[in-house]
Structure formats: structure tokens, C-alpha cells
Amino acid sequence: MLLQTIAFYAFSAILLASAFMVISARNPVHSVFFLILAFFNAAGLFVLLGAEFLAMILVIVYVGAVAVLFLFVVMMLDVDFAELKSGAQQYILVGGGVGIVLLLELIGSAMMWKFSPAATVAAAHPTPTGISNTEAIGRILYTDYIYYFQIAGLVLLVAMIGAIVLTLRHRPGVRRQDIGKQNARVASEAMALVDVKPGQGA
Amino acid sequence: MALLNWLQSLGLDYGWAWFIGQAAMILFFDVVLLVSIAFILLADRKIWAAVQLRRGPNVVGPLGLFQTFADLFKFMFKEVIIPSSANKVIFFLAPLVTATLAFAGWAVIPMAPGWVVADINVGILYLFAMSSLGVYGIIMAGWASNSKYPFLSALRAAAQMVSYEVSIGFVIITVLLFAGSLNLSAIVRAQETTSIFAFSGWNVFSILFPMLPIFFVSALAETNRPPFDLVEAESELVAGFFVEYSATQFMLFFLGEYVSIMLMCSLMTVLFLGGWLPPLNIAPFTMVPGIVWFLIKILFFFFMFAMVKAMVPRYRYDQLMRLGWKVFLPTSLLWVVVTAGYVLLFHHHA
Asked: Do the domain assignments include residue A45?
């Protein structure tokens, strides 16, 4: 038990410290690295709770994919945060308004929160007796919430196609390798045997 | 276990005894792994040399057996050079991240029944997470070096590893659909059969057979091995992301690379070749301990890795991306659907 307590305080302390550093670090690349550290420690807390599936998914999705993209953008754009912050004053009203609306929405949904009967059974312990954590999530996700799950998938699909449509550009004049075309070439189409007479040229 | 009981008899409570026992086990395991990697490295160079009709390293010790140890001391006693414009903290962290993540993945690999450091429920997700984090070591090194070639190399590496992770992920999904578990020991046990031809139960001889080549090639790309070593590409990028590194830090990158190659080999063994299971269920084969079969299978895959390195020329970058996104991704995605249908219709697991 003592080990778990030590681990809990270590994870939480590092999580809070790195979350603070994300917004206070001077160098934006350092901010992203602190964000990654924060994700990691959150995953550690999930493991302590017994929710190992969520922990691993958090690492795979957020650290392994999302944060890599963040890092890419931040490294290549060379964002000057000091300049961005200097103009922040004029947006404080709009930003604050959005923040308050979000806060109210969160409070509203927290008040209305109801558990599905299947979830209430499972809530006593993240790993209900007899089945693993992954199976418990799967059972709820693919039975009670199957439509929401499908809708979420569709939203992602639309977003993905949208991103492709927005960025796909066929520039004329660019020579690309077409493997199918290359493989379909035969000697009779690609070559011509010319009988050159001496002294005349082709 | 014996260690655990002994520590408890000394008056430690269970938690601390467990902690010390685990730490000792991990330390022992890492030492064994490091020594094996030393010989694996030599084997890689020897195989490469044999394909090119050379002798390979043959000076240090009999048959050059101690070559890697000589290299180790050479790297350790060299001077550490840090570029003056480098970001020092991240520059130091990058090789540590690479080496640590490569070692961390080994925690869940079952060598033989019960021979595993951490037999966790989501073992395969953990491995996938660790291998997908490997890209950070490279990005950090490339960015922190503050130099052109390493940065270009880091961008290439990140794009390459993210692309091939997708198909690796789908291959893993097909296997776990088939096995019905995320635990690596359970995946091996799902491949056990009672028939004499024990190999017929292995995943590679089931409907999953096209997934092994895809996984193998993706593993080559994920570990930046030739023919997908565009990250290093001596002729264009000098040596890629570790141009600015020297001495022990360079060695850590080198070590991390080989440790993760062996990790990929053992993952293929567990997923497709039945881990510690013998190929035939008759007397001389079943008497050999599981760890021996496991090592033979790992070494087989490593031999393939080494042969590919010796024989195949380097891919061009657009060809690499085409292979990942236009060939492997659709094929593995299709195979997830095929396997799911097959499992639903014919293959009921408990």
C-alpha cells in the first residue's frame, strides 16, 4: 500500500508540475515535451486506478500520435510566443466569454450526469470480477452506446475526408512514378528497332 | 519467487519484498539481454560480411567474438562532444529515451511459460505504445542537435514511423481478434494444439498468414533497418539524426536500435510462430525447454533481418510512403475485416 501511495504522489506531483510548465515554459518545444510528460503521468495514474486499458490508449493515441503532430508543427513553424501573447489583451473579453460558457456547460452536464445500469454495476471497481478491464469497456461501448460509437466514427471519417479534400492538390507538370503503368509496359510498345544504314544516321 | 520468500523471511513486508525482487529480476534480465545483444551485433556484422564474401570482424578474441566488447570500451572512453548551439538538456535526454524505451518493451515478452517480468492484461498494447514512443528519441535528437541534416532526418523518421505504425497496429488487431486476448502469454497459449503437428496451430499457418510478411516489413521500417534506413542515409544525410552524437551517447542510440530490433523479432515470434511452443508434439521436441524454441525462433527472424540488410537496396522516400499507405494499410485493414468475419463464423474462443 505504501508503494502505491508513493507512486500516486509522485505521479500527481509530476503531472501538476509539468502541466504548469506547459503554459509557463518559454520555448514552445519544451512546452510540448512537458505536455508529453503530463500525459505519461496521467497514464500512470490510470494504471494505479486499475484502468490499464485507458492508460495504454492514452499513451498510444495522445503521446504516440497527437503529440508527435504537435511537435512537428511547433518545431517547423518556429512560433514566437512572446509576440502572440502581446496581442492577447484585446481578445480577453471574447476568450473569457467562451471560457465561461464552457465552464457552465461542464457544470450543467455534471449535474445531469446519470449512469447506465450496466455502468453502475461496473463502477464499484474498474475491473469487475471475472472479466478484464478491456472487456468491461468493450461490453458497454458496443452494447449500450453502439450508436454513439458509430456516430463518433462517422464524425471522424467526415473530418478525415474533409482534411484530405482541403489539402489534395494535383499540380500539373509534376512527374510522378506510376507503378501500375511501369509494370504494364512491354518491350514492343517501349522500343522500336531501327535499321540504320551506315553513313546516314537514324 | 524464491527471492521473494527469502526477503519476506528477513522481515520485510510483502510490498517492499516484491519491489526489491522485481528490481533484482529486471536488473538480471537487462544484463542477460545486453550480453546477448553484444553477440547479436557481431552476428549481424558476420552475416553481412558473409553475404559480401568478406570475413567480418575477426581480430578481437577467437573469431572476433569480443569485437562488440572492444567497441563498447572504445565508445565509453571517447570524448563526449556537444555542439555549442545544441539544446543541451534535450540533447542529453534523447539517447536515454531511445535506449530506455527499447528496454522497457521487453518487460511483457513471455520467454517460456511464466517467464515474463510483467504478465499484464494489456501486454500487446503496452508493447505497441513503447514502440510508437521510439520516435521521440529520434525527433529529440534531431531537433536538439540544431543542425540541418539531423533535423531533416528526424522529420523523415517521424513520418516513416508514424506511417508504419498504422499497419503494425492493424496486424496486431488481427492477431488479437484471433487469440481473443491482449495478454501475450494468452496469445501464445491460444496457438497451442493437441495434434502431433504442433506448428499447424501457429498463427502463421492460419488465416493470418498474409499478416506476417506485412508485419516483418513494417518492423523493418519501424526500426529504421535497411532497406528503410532513410533516417540514416549516409549518402544524403551524412548519418542522419545522430551526426552530432559521439561516445557513450552514440552507443546508446546504437544499442537502442538493436534492442528494439530484437524486440520486434520476439514480438513476431509471439504473435505468429507460437512463442515457446515446440514445432512438433513428439518426444525429442517436447523435451526441449520452451526458452530454447523461443530463442531459435527469435534468431531465425533476426537472420532474416540481417539478410534483408545485406541484400536489398535502400528504398526511395516516396516509394516507402507508397508502400506504407497504399499497399500495407489497405491490405491490413481488409484483413481485419476478413479475420473478424472468420472468427465470428468458424473460430469460437472461450
From this structure: yes
pLDDT digits (tens, 9 = 90+) for A49-96: 888 888 888 988 888 888 888 888 888 776 666 666 676 777 888 888
Tens digits of residue pLDDT in A122-155: 555 555 566 777 777 888 888 888 899 999 999 9
The partner residue sitting opposite A2, judged by closest CB among B15, B126, B165, is B15
B148 interfacial to chain A (CB closer than 8 Å): no
Counted domains in chain A: 2
Contact residues, chain B, for A53 at CB < 8 Å: 121-122, 125
Burial of residue B98 (CB within 10 Å: 0-12, 13-18, 19+) is buried
Task: Tell me the CATH number at A21.
Answer: 1.20.120.1200
The amino acid present at B145, given as its one-letter code, is S
Confirm if B177 and B346 have CB atoms less than 8 A apart. Answer: no
Per-residue pLDDT tens for B9-28?
Answer: 776 777 777 788 888 888 88
What is the spatial distance between Cα B206 and Cα B218, in angstroms, rounded to a whole number? 20
Question: Cβ atoms within 10 A of the Cβ of B289, count?
Answer: 14
Contact at CB, A68 and B165, closer than 8 angstroms: no
Domain of residue A3 covers 1-80
- Residue in A2, A61, A68, A132 to test binding to B, most B beta-carbons within 10 Å: A68
Closest CA to B154 of B98, B99, B115, B208: B98
